[in-house]
Each structure stands twice: as structure tokens, then as C-alpha cells.
Write a structure and sequence with these properties.
single chain, mainly beta, Jelly Rolls, Elongation Factor Tu (Ef-tu), domain 3, 9-stranded antiparallel beta sheet, 8-stranded antiparallel beta sheet, binds calcium ion
Length: about 450
Amino acid sequence: MHEHAAACVLVLTFLACCAWAADEPEPIHVWHFDEQAGDDLLDASDDFIDLKLCGGATRVEGRFGGAVQTGDGGYVQGDGVGRMSSGAIELWVKPLEEFGSAQFGFIGFGHEFGGDNDQALLGIFPGPERGGPPQFGFGICPGTWSGACATEPPAVGEWHHLVANWGRLGIQVYVDGELVADEDIRLDLPRHAAVFLGASSWGRTFGAIIDEVRIYADPLPAEMVRRHFADASYVASPPAPTDRQVHYGAAEGGSLNAADFDSPESFTGGIQEAIDALPRRGGEVHVLPGTYLIRRSIWVRDNITLRGAGAATVLIRPSERMTKLTAPAEAGDRTVQVEDASGFEVGADISIYADRVHGWHSTTAHIEAIEGNTVTLSRGLNRPVDPAEGHGHAQPWPQQAGGPGRGRRGHQLLPHGHLRTRAQSRHPRPVHRRRHGPAQ
Ligand SMILES: [Ca+2]
């Protein structure tokens, strides 16, 4: 009886945890600062915005692994996160200098450093009255400053956990798990050019060690704030990225060589990996002289330029190989039966089509598995295919494509063109291009 009762309690506790976890905001940006070296501070979220050490800011031992130290001209900066009607910021900080009257943010949003316009600050922000006393808290400035102020700033030389919420529930500021300021001020985080740490866009920096910075799209509940202060296990996820190399070049973005990313595991001669390694602002991938075997579609996101080296850059795809479908499959199905799968390769692309299912109705997907003559696809079929109603075929068919919905602005695919494409088959076809650049 006791054991049964204990089991019920465990189940109920587990269910309660699930319900509670489901209500908790997930971070949309997470900076751990745990990279071993370099100036790039990687965002562990999927929609990443990487930051950069600037002005002599350094990596130091932090509250959890590595952290960044600002001050004496050193600061951290990256692209803005966009307008947010509600949200939260969370970070750990050890202030290294006494608070003065100059405005700055442990985290701030505004023009780039030196651009002289702060739009939101968690730190010292100006009072609404010109010349009013400086105040510690979180303030937003759509034209004039308003926000929630603590009665005193956090103690110097000690680690503190800071959270600021904004949105329809007003502005709240928490220090070390406790609510220290709460105002019914409902303001958006305005659109801004840059996120910065330990600084003001007015060219000031503040001495601090800053660790584990997070941005959420929803305010954090008080219980979650208290728990994060008391139990640091939350910092373990999401894990720091290890497979993304970030290079920054000129203002228009980075510049990478596809060959640096080539490996036996790459299905695109390193081109896709190089595209994926560019920062979100985009950049260039140079496809230097050589022959690149393309066994999978190349997906190009916004603001990416692929540059070849004239006729010396040759993209080839494997010999075309076609096999008949032997069983009907419904739209959404992820497996197809084929007559002979021996020429196909797990990881490569395949196209599925039939007499009335071709062009954009056909399906191109990665092959996830091959068992006998059953081929499993990385996504479901666009349209049903039925060998009884026509000739259904499966064929390796790599292409270069801009993904629907992924090229909303500034989408560029081979606009400079100097890439020659050549199929290995006896009847070469041009690699399919879906773009607006000049034909080559
Ligand atoms: Ca850290």
C-alpha cells in the first residue's frame, strides 16, 4: 500500500513538472561565453545572433565556465534582436567598479557603440527629468526614458543574478531572485541596431564580468527567476555550439572558402557547410578553382553570395540513375518502394516523380535510410504517386535551390555567376537554378 501510494505521488509530481515546464518561456538567445578562444561569442539558440569582443574586452573565468570582462574601453556587441512587444533578459554579473551617474547597460539595446542613442538599458538609465539622478534598473526610451528602478544597485565585487521583464504585465526587475522594482509601464523594446554588454552607445564602458546572458520572448515568472538564482542547472541547455565557425569580414558579412569546409562527410563539397557557418547577416562563400561533387541540394538563405572562379570552378553531380517505383505512396509518406535501390546513397538527395507528378509537384528530399528496396526520405511526399497510373520514378537529383520562405529579402544565388556546372551523366543537364541572377 505504501509503495502504491509512493508511486502515485511520483506520477503526480512528474505530471506537475511537465505542466509547469510547458508554461515556462524558452530563451530565444543564449550566450554562454564558454568558447575557448577568439573574439566571437556564439549564440546557442537556433536563430542565432553572435556577439563579439570589442575594444579590448577579454574572456575571463566566470560564474559558469567562461565569461566576458568589460570596462576600460572594452565592451561586447552584436546585431540587434529586433522589436519585441514583450520579453525578458537574464544574466549574471559581477560589477567591478562603483556605479556613477553615467548611463550604461550590463545589457543595452541601441545604436552601435559610438552611435549615441541608447533605447533600452539594464543598468544605469536616465530619469524622465533631464538632469534627474541616475538610477539602477531597467529602462526603455521610445523618446523619453521610463522604467523600473531599484532603491540601490547591486553590490560591487559580488556575483548577482539579474532579470528584467517588459511587456503587457509592465516592467519588473529582479536581483538575486527577489523582485526589487515593478512598474505598470507597458512599452515595447524598440527596434534597434545593436545589442551591447558593459557599455552605452554613447561610447562609455563599465567594468564588469558578465556571464550567461539570455533573452526571452516572454516575461519570466517570479518562480522561474527564483529557481534560476538558486539552482544553476538551467545553464546547461541549450549546449554551446561546437560545430559552427564564425568569421566576420566587412560590414556586409563574412567571407568563407567552401574548400575549408569540405570533408568526406560533406554532400556539397563544403559549400552548404560554408553557407551555414556564415553569420546571420550573411556574407560570401568563395568556391575556388576545383571540381566540387554536389550530391545534395544547396540551400541558400538571405544575403548569401556564392562566388566561383570562372571556368576553373566546376560543380558536378553524380551520374543520373533512375529506378521505378513499385508501390503507390500517399502525400506525406516518407517511405517509397523502388525496383532497385542499389545506386542510391544515404544522405544524398533523391527526386520522386511520376507522369502527373513532376516539376514543383515532385519531391526532393535527403535519403535517410535504405533497407532493401525501401527508401526512407527526410520529408513527406508533396503529392501521391502511383505506378499503376503512370511511370513513377526515383532519381538522384541534386539541385541548387533557394528554399521557399527562406529567401525573403536580398536573396542571392549565383548572381555573379562564375560557376560552371557539369553533370557526369552521358546526357548532361544544367543544374537546376531557381533565382533571378543572369544565366551563365
Ligand atoms: Ca559561461
